[in-house]
Amino acid sequence: MSRILDQRILLLVILLSASLQSTKVLSEWKKCGDPECEKAMSRVQAITDYLGPDCRYLNFKTGEEITVYSKLSRENENLWTGSKGKDFGYFPRDAVKVEEVLIGEEVEVLTKETDFLCLHEDKYTFE
What pairs with residue 56 in β-bridges? Predict the structure, then answer.
């Protein structure tokens, strides 16, 4: 009985840590093309295959085109946010090369908690 209880507690700890990791705030600030972060900033092309660590990340293959909508700033400038078809998520900026800049000036805004949730088919997924 004690062993089963220990296994259940361990499983609960693992599930909680995975949930916290998938909703972790990656940065307090981001740069966008407009204050609402709705305007596309640039068009980039993947220079390497990328498979993200969780559902918040955009997976892609070399050569695919991605539209960039925001770039995390200050404490985590390596991650950009973009879309490829219906898929949307974070990816490292060094995995792409800029093909076309679509805005003249970037605006820095605070991130929101919803920026770091998984989005599947127009619905937020709460881990």
Answer: none
Integer Cα distance of 120 and 3 in angstroms: 38
d(CA 63, CA 41): 19
Q: Which residues are paired to 52 by β-bridges?
A: none
- Walk me through the domains of the chain, giving residue ranges and CATH numbers: 25-104 (2.30.30.40)
Specify whether the CB–CB gap between 88 and 58 falls below 8 A.
Answer: yes
pLDDT digits (tens, 9 = 90+) for 45-65: 999 999 999 989 999 999 999
pLDDT for 13:
45
CA-CA-CA-CA torsion sign (72, 78, 82, 97)? positive
Quick count: other Cβ atoms within 10 Å of Cβ 7?
10
